């Protein structure tokens, strides 16, 4: 294994809840062994990137109800191709050479898995996407 691959694998967090078995599909195996650890590693970056996305889209997000905010996140990931491609790049850039080769064999299905996991992560962290002014008031208390 080359140095880059070794360093990438070493940097990934361990997810103790992941269970691997022989009945898993190749996609599910790749998701659990590769995608989930990478997405967990990149979580803070995804949060900052989404906050920037909100800002670039005129802070409309902050005016929405919680249900509409969840839908906003989903639409941003599934319908904004530039944003989606940026997220995919943040994940694919963390692949080892072997993982990239595996990814290219079934990229469409793996892209769906990637984006669904990222969507779930952003939605589960929705409380972190409050209007910056509101957060400043909370800090002052």
Structure description:
The protein is mainly alpha-helical and 141 residues long. The chain has one domain. It is 72% helix and 0% strand. The protein contains eight helices and no strands. Helix 4 (66-79) crosses helix 5. The chain is elongated, with a radius of gyration of 17 Å. The chain starts with a helix and ends with a helix. The mean pLDDT is 93.
How is the secondary structure organized here?
Blueprint: H1 3-11, H2 26-41, H3 43-56, H4 66-79, H5 81-92, H6 97-105, H7 107-124, H8 132-140
Helix pairs in contact: 2-7, 4-5, 4-7, 5-7
Mean pLDDT across residues: 93
Strand portion:
under 5%
Q: What are the secondary-structure elements, in order, as H or E?
A: HHHHHHHH
Distance linking N and C termini: 52 Å
Please give the number of β-strands: 0
Question: Taking Cα atoms only, what radius of gyration do you get, to the nearest Å?
Answer: 17 Å
Largest sheet: none
What is the 3D shape? elongated
Count of alpha and pi helical runs: 8
**Would you tell me the structural class of the helices and strands?**
mainly alpha
Helical fraction: over 70%
Taking pLDDT < 50 over at least 5 consecutive residues as the criterion, the unreliable ranges are none
Q: Please indicate the count of domains.
A: 1
Quick summary:
This protein has 8 helices and no strands.
